[in-house]
Design brief:
Chain lengths: ~230, ~230
DNA sequence: AGCCAATAAATTGTCGACAATCCAACTTGA
DNA sequence: TCAAGTTGGATTGTCGACAATTTATTGGCT
């Protein structure tokens, strides 16, 4: 049976990996559930060969854990892992902001200011409703990361870590997050970058992510997500 | 034909992945060379199934690059990639040192001091000959990383990034590195950790890695390794 | 009834073969 | 002679089937 969106990729394995990633991030495959190879193979209409390659890839992304002769399981979001992941984000995205402060071209900076204005306008028009910027080119963090100019850093953050990060963003109904505060922090970071103040940019980015993780922590501890074993 | 060391693992795929990793890191499979599936399958005495899974894993480790319908190639070490990778290391190991400054237990700190004394004695006895600490438990950096207590950080640094880092360490005959200077820096970092000075520990670790990368850069630019296309 | 051993079913790991794609050598025509 | 098209060989991608291992079920014993 065909699944939702069918992204035509060069190889079946890539295709399946992409679809599985989405399915897990969006919760269509529940956390902690077992990955049954025969079942999924039938579901996606492929043989187990490419499916297994996709699962190996997902293991590398940290979306599933595998045990020899037993199989793969979708990871379980929990507070400690979230904190650990976000601490890594602090280090990496802080560095990205620092690098961006010296390498980001003026027009890209202006384009980012325009994006923040757009976010501002959206908040004004929709009474502070959260702006969904999942992974697209409108995502402030992704823009900063790309501006770092560090290919390895970009790959790590956008291709290997972001799936899990998006999962945390999505599965915690972060109603207690304050979009206007986040926007102010984004603006402060961008100001530091525009002024080529690498130290400050890194500091602010770290603080920004640290604050987000604290909010997520509270949300997880008070929501059903965390308690659902 | 059996290859060198045969680490018995639960599954053939893991086994092959391990052996291939070693072969690439140690240069038995040369940089930039094509990975021929039929050839390797025959060489290791396995079918292409588990071999392909291993290659997918290696791609995740950044040891090979794959192109659809074309195949996999061993990466080419080059100065820019090295600098990018070491910048990430700065961010991540800097954070690890910071965390270690608050979480590292006293006995582990003492044990690390003892290790540094051992390194010192080795230098004294062998007229500054380089101490080979490739990946073992005698590796100062690995000890700090583990002391961070951040499981995600540990996994990323020790399981995903270290293969490439070891490759850089090994393939550049870093004769111009000064082991005594490195030892002094290690000691300063450990002092900061022992005093629970997280900020300082991070700063020193960053500086230490940055300095190492500069030395590596010079070594690569002046050695045949970098010019050998 | 409850627990342990033996057996059956299902799942994972591995293999060899076929299909699709790419690459190199060769032919053909201007 | 050179360029483009064609054909043959080799390699990668995919599949279905078998072997090995785990998990569930059944039966027997205390």
């Amino acid at each position: 049976m065909n699944n939702l969106i069918s992204i035509k990729s060069a190889t079946l394995s890539e295709d399946i990996a992409q679809q599985l990633t989405n399915a897990i991030v969006q919760g269509h495959i529940p956390q902690g559930s077992k990955i049954s190879e025969p079942e999924l193979a039938k579901q996606y209409g492929v043989s187990r060969g490419p499916l297994r390659e996709a699962i190996v890839k997902l293991e590398g992304l940290g979306l599933v854990t595998r045990t020899a002769n037993v199989g793969a399981r979708v990871i379980q979001l929990n507070t400690q892992d979230m904190l650990d992941t976000f601490t890594m984000r602090e280090a990496l995205e802080g560095m990205a902001a620092r690098l961006a402060a010296t390498t980001m071209p003026a027009d890209e900076i202006n384009s980012l200011y325009a994006l923040l204005d757009k976010h501002q306008a959206h908040l004004d028009a929709n009474q502070d409703e959260h702006y969904v910027q999942q992974g697209g080119n409108d995502d402030f963090h992704l823009r900063i990361i790309h501006a770092s100019g560090n290919a390895k850093l970009i790959r790590l953050l956008t291709e290997e870590l972001y799936a899990v990060i998006r999962m945390y963003r999505r599965h915690t109904s972060d109603q207690r997050s304050d979009p206007r505060q986040a926007l102010r922090e984004h603006k402060a970071i961008l100001d530091a970058i525009a002024n080529h103040e690498g130290d400050l940019a890194e500091l602010l980015m770290r603080r920004h992510i640290s604050r987000a993780s604290q909010l997520l922590k509270q949300a997880m501890e008070h929501s059903s997500v965390a308690s659902r074993i």
